[in-house]
Amino acid sequence: MWDTLFLNAEVATMAEGGAPYGLIHDAAIGVKDGVIAYVGPVGDISADIGDLAREVHDVSGDLVTPGLIDCHTHLVWAGDRSGEFEARLLGKTYAEIAKAGGGIMATVAATREADEETLFDAAMTRLQDFLAEGVTTIEVKSGYGLDTETELKILRVARALEDEDHVRVRTTFLGAHAMPPEFKSADAYIDHICNDMLPATKEEGLVDAVDGFCETIGFSPEQIERVLAAAASLGIPVKLHAEQLSDQGGAKLAAQYKALSVDHLEYLAADDAAALADAGTVAVLLPGAYYYLRETQKPPVDALRDAGVKMAVATDCNPGTSPMTSLLLSANMACTFFGLTAEEALAGITRNGAKALGLEDCGVIEIGKRADLAIWDAKRPAELVASIGQNPLIARIFGGAICP
Ligand code: NIG
Ligand code: FE
Fold first, then answer.
1. Span from the CA of 318 to the centroid of ligand 1 (angstroms)
2. Ligand nearest to the CA of 143
């Protein structure tokens, strides 16, 4: 007997191939032990509905999708960077602010100061916005510590969010985010990351993936490669902030390490798309940062699509370049700014978001996957990405449990 049965749903399974959005009309979803045990037309169920499940919920024709997945955030930070927003409006660039000691370093200083409880409370407040919009899995990066103690603190806080609420958190170690002030040379800091910081985060069991910032204001491809190699030698999957502000060849480099994802990609050369496709590396598009920095260079979406690269969409939630907590808005922006179809955008925050995190048990509604679902006051999947600032969520289901 199933635990729960959802009846009369318009289900966008987001399974690949087949109908657009993987749509099934008049569908039922059966859940047992937190896992999807049935998905298909109600009419195909031959048994008496009352005998099938302990609890039956009539969804009355509403839309059900996989729970949303935000595969790129920097959710844990302290401090305020609104002054930089003001400065940029007066003509300063992001790179100029970073070079003058603001930017990421400003957040690092505030985050080092903050205790775990303060960081947890701030991150939890942000997290609530995501959950209210149907997010069931969220990635959280470190990278605002840049010393072992603070990086561990951030990752611990991120994992504690998962313990506290009905959400799955994947943690990514982003030690190679910026140069900490106490280091004189970037190479010496990279040594420290590879020899000390990364092993320490791994030892505490706090790292699901390793990331870096390959950029003129971040680290060179040679320095990033040492981090990727160190991660690979510890058996940890990698991701990379690549080609956000200039073309450094970071995406191609990460693909050589079979990266789960390369993220941003505004300056990716169209020719490099093939390498991502070959490696099965997901292109994560972050239109919030593009918008907030008032960039004009767009990622080569046509080339990515033509090469068969999977595209995910994420908020990049962070205090400096994308202080946004709405994944639906990111999906909308991925359509309006970058030219994704509505179906691609929705796949980007479900199926391909899972792939960007190396998760195979979520992101689509299929038998055997986790019962992470979102029920919406909507009839068509495109409604979710077509509106701005509306939140049609009716209920969030996490591992089969209807969340309060
Ligand atoms: O993803 N690109 C680097 N990291 C962040 C920005 C962090 C910050 O400015 O605080 C990003 O955009
Ligand atoms: Fe980022």
1. 7
2. 1
Interacting residues of 201 by C-beta distance below 8 A, sequence separation 6+: 142, 148, 151, 152, 155, 173, 175, 207
Which of 70, 71, 72, 74 has most ligand 1 atoms within 8 Å of CB, for mutation? 74
CB 36, CB 369: distance < 8 Å: yes
Radius of gyration from C-alpha coordinates of the chain: 21
Kindly report, residue by residue over 222-281, the tens digit of the pLDDT. 999 999 999 999 999 999 999 999 999 999 999 999 999 999 999 999 999 999 999 999
Residue with tokens 């390369």: 262
The Cα–Cα gap between 20 and 343 comes to 7
Instruction: List all residues whose CB is within 6 A of at least one atom of ligand 1.
Output: 103-104, 107, 213, 241, 244, 289, 316, 318-322
Distance (Å, whole) CA 296 – CA 290: 8
Query: Ligand 1 centre and the CA of 323: distance in Å?
Result: 10
- With a CB cutoff of 8 Å and minimum separation 6, the contacts of 342 are 335, 381, 382, 385, 386
The model's pTM is 0.98
Residues whose Cβ atom is located within 5 A of ion ligand 2: 316
Ligand at shortest distance from the CA of 73: 2
Distance CA 35, CA 395 (A): 17
